[in-house]
């Protein structure tokens, strides 16, 4: 944790401790897990003594100047979470939770800032994450569906939407790689850090992708290139996990792409 992050965490803790409606607070996110860096935001979980948590969160949404001077304050999940960007462009989130919510957290991934009660998140067994057939099948079906929708983008000359589709395929490919690596949702954290979670070979495949051009030829090439990375990996992972491959959907998608676009994916 940097000095700036430490000072911000201390300011949040000091303000929450002075609030009689806050029973306890923990540092979470990547900093709480001990894997953060200078670019990590400060995530804090605040246990509200008496629900509803959204009522307490609303007070902080209206005024966080006692923590830091805000440039942007965003209220999320009905006021249960506030996300703040300070004038110095530090970022922090405070999640206001009730006692019933504590089971969603793992004490092993949190650092206690203060606790004036006895309630605390449980410590879960550190079992390694393993993907499931449902997760693998969901990724494969969504990949095939997005590839199939390229027909509409090309037919309507919706090149901007085609670019968005290629971005979704890239994200699905990254998600598949994380499933390959046994990286669960908790370990993934936010969307701003992926390098440590991918192997050198996976990063090379992604980093050497051809930049996508907003043209018919560019989008077809991008879809074909991403499919060449995704589908072989997905078949291997499906075999490893006993996932029933969506043979019919794959065949229908491939047939239509060849017939209408001359695009063959493997």
Structure description:
A hairpin with a 4-residue loop joins strand 4 (81-86) and strand 5 (91-97). The protein has helices at residues 3-17, 29-33, 53-62, 133-148, 150-156, 159-180, 185-188, 200-207, 216-241, 247-261; strands spanning 22-28, 42-48, 70-76, 81-86, 91-97, 111-115. It is α+β, with helices and mostly antiparallel strands and 266 residues long. Helices cover 48% and strands 15% of the residues. Strands 3-4-5-2-1-6 form a six-stranded mixed β-sheet. It contains ten helices and six strands, in the order H-E-H-E-H-E-E-E-E-H-H-H-H-H-H-H. The two termini are 45 Å apart.
Whole-number mean pLDDT: 94
The poorly predicted ranges are none
Total count of helical runs of at least 4 residues:
10
N- and C-termini, Cα separation: 45 Å
Biggest sheet strand order reads 3-4-5-2-1-6
User: What is the number of beta strands?
Assistant: 6
**In sequence order, what are the helices and strands, one letter per element?**
HEHEHEEEEHHHHHHH
Assembly type of the shown chains? single chain
Beta content comes to 5-15%
User: What structural category do the secondary elements indicate?
Assistant: alpha+beta
Largest sheet: 6 strands, mixed
From the spread of the alpha carbons, the general shape counts as elongated
Radius of gyration (CA) equals 23 Å
Measured as a percent range, the helix fraction is 40-55%
Give a short overview.
By secondary structure, this protein is an alpha+beta fold.
Helices, strands, pairings?
Elements: H1 3-17, E1 22-28, H2 29-33, E2 42-48, H3 53-62, E3 70-76, E4 81-86, E5 91-97, E6 111-115, H4 133-148, H5 150-156, H6 159-180, H7 185-188, H8 200-207, H9 216-241, H10 247-261
Parallel strand pairs: 2-5
Antiparallel strand pairs: 1-2, 1-6, 3-4, 4-5
Helix pairs in contact: 4-6, 4-9, 4-10, 5-6, 6-9
